[in-house]
Amino acid sequence: MSLVHLANTCSHLQNASRARLGLTSVPDTKFHLRLMLALQNSGFISTVVRGGPTPPPPHSLLTHPTSTDPTAPIEPVTQRNISTRRLWLGLKYWNSSPVLEKMSLISKPTRRIWMDVTGLKQLVLGKDAGYVKGLRKPGECIYVSTDRGILEARECVERKMGGMLICRVG
Amino acid sequence: MSVFRSSECVFCLFSRSSRPAAASRRQFHATRVHQKRKPRFPSVKAANTEVNLSQATQDYRSAKNGTIPQHYSAEQRAAIEAAQKLIDAENLEKQTGLRTDPWKMKYYDDLTKIDPVVDKPVRAPWTTIDDNSRLKTEDELEDDLVNFMQRIPQPKHENDFDPTLWDKFDKNLRLTVGREEAERKPRTALAPELPNISDTPPPKKTTKGNEVVVEEPPSPALVRLMQMTGYDRRQISQLRVKTIIQHRVTNQTRLGKIHRAYVLSVAGNQNGLIGIGEGKAVEAGDAVLQSQYRAIRAMTPILRYEDRTIFGEVRGKVSATELELYSRPPGFGLRCQKYIWEICQCAGIKDLAARVTRARNPMNTVKAAVEALISQKDPEEIARARGKKLVDVRKVYYAGQT
Q: pLDDT digits over B376-394, tens only?
């Protein structure tokens, strides 16, 4: 679980949104995949598809590729092709501004931050907890790595689970 | 490493007739010359991912020439088949696509209805014109006069004549023969709602107790402001306009110093509109008026939560001045410095805290605060962008009686 790669991914997604890219790719790791699926669940990105070094073809009706497209099936990961796999992400735009505007790490490679439910509750209410600032901007999200996968901070509070704070997306 | 291209061997120019690439020439130093860097994994621009209409019609041929639904009658089906034979599919596809020329519209509209807000006002229709109308001849005018004279009641004494009768006749007298609308309401090139600017209205008189006060006509600058904003004089006087920064500025020329007055004003309707304006003039009074009118002209709507505070936390930055505005609960008040306080008063914000984190230049503070207020994002819009549904639980819990 390399936070260095995640830091690169965060800034890459921010840059790609500002460059108005529709489809971009990040390295394919299990950690990245789970975080990207959590982002997709929150509606920040439109699609997550595992593919090779070139962008997968778009679905014939949608504007972006999908993992369930029968005309472009996903190539299974093998030892031969695992090094070339990338996660292809569809970025979203609304009213000519990117949906994902800012994405930054909370835990750093040199200092990871764990938080229990009481701390997360404070964050979700918009109050600071420790050195972490609360969710005070409208629509801001914090993603937490727990033993049940990567969840949004509000969902963590609902399920009464703590974990490692990964990144802040807004 | 130098960003410019490194010096190259000039003699290499003669040895090769054509230059395939800059890198193929001999370099005079060891630093590598980078070609334009390309990403290892090519991304796709968002503009390129739109749906290809022509491709879709090729894929779904049933939409183009396929079976006609059974619920049409036999004649309708025959008509559709005949039309399909006549109309060239390629031509139809070419004509029905979205326009790409520079004069294409920036929005979608079916253009069949006239929107009173967006579209130009409707003029008198062409149908009022009557081609057969002509001026009345003298005989016909005489007949009209005779008819009028006959309808006048018999006078009882010498001066018994009602002048209103004649006025009415004069007003209703038609000078042309033909359709009445063509004379009374002719088509005009002027838009009907356009105000008549050229006429100077007489000064209004209002009685204030016993004395009569003559209202002065508005100054040309005020008239322009009224035309630009659409507000009338009373509405403009009801706006809250404050001059918050005022000082003298100097231009040093070789002939000496030229002083002028600088003024920054804020204007708002205390109900979600805010604008700032700067003015500079030799006379301080002129500068004040200039800045106030500019502020009124620049008024823009801002978002307010429950008409009292802002949505969440916003940041503003102008030059070295950076500030943060925070939303606060009801009854908190405005706990911020005086410039931001004035802006909030004009905009109608009642609960707010603010912190100016870096430089506190007054002019930049005002600009940054307004910029921050304008840059607020609507949570509804954010939710729609993410495909979520948003409910304000505050309203749910207290049944809307907050």
A: 999 999 999 999 998 887 7
CA-based nearest residue in chain B for residue A86: B41
Residue pair B350/B333 in contact by the 8 Å Cβ criterion: yes
Mean pLDDT, rounded, of chain B: 82
Could you tell me the fold of the domain covering A3-98? Ribosomal Protein S8; Chain: A, domain 1 (3.30.1370)
* CATH class name, domain A106-169: alpha beta
What's residue B39's pLDDT? 83
Q: Which of A149, A146, A166 is nearest to A5 (CA)?
A: A166
Across the A:B interface, residue pairs with CB atoms under 8 Å apart total 75
Report the run of H or E that residue B247 belongs to, with start and end: strand B240-253
What is B221-301's CATH number? 3.30.160.20
Judging contacts by C-beta atoms under 8 Å, the chain A residues touching residue B45 are: 20-22
Cβ of B45 and A16 within 8 Å? no
* Topology of the domain covering B313-395: Ribosomal Protein S5; domain 2 (3.30.230)
Stated pTM of the model = 0.66
CB contact under 8 A, B385 and A92: yes
Nearest to A136 among B40, B312, B387 (CB): B312
Q: Does B53 touch chain A (CB under 8 A)?
A: no
Distance from C-alpha of B258 to C-alpha of B262, rounded to nearest angstrom: 13
**Scanning every residue of chain A, which has its alpha carbon at the shortest distance from the alpha carbon of B386?**
A43
Nearest-Cα residue of chain A relative to residue B48: A22
Closest CA to A80 of A59, A100, A61, A52: A52
Every domain of chain B and the residues it spans = 221-301, 313-395
Q: Which of B24-28, B35-39, B362-366 has the highest mean pLDDT?
A: B362-366
- Assigned token pair, B15: 């040895």
Q: What is the pLDDT of residue B5?
A: 52
In chain B, pLDDT over 70 holds for what percent of residues? 77
User: Domain segments of chain A: what residues?
Assistant: 3-98, 106-169
What is the DSSP track for B308-347?
TB-SSEEEEEETTEEEEEEE--TT--EES-HHHHHHHHHH
Interface contact A63-B49, CB threshold 8 A: yes
Q: Which of B37, B44, B390 to mutate to test the interface with A (most CBs of A within 10 A)?
A: B44
Looking at the complex, does the CB of residue B98 fall below 8 Å from at least one CB of chain A? no
A156-to-A42, A145, A147, A161, A170 alpha-carbon distances in Å: 14, 10, 11, 5, 18
ipTM of the complex: 0.92
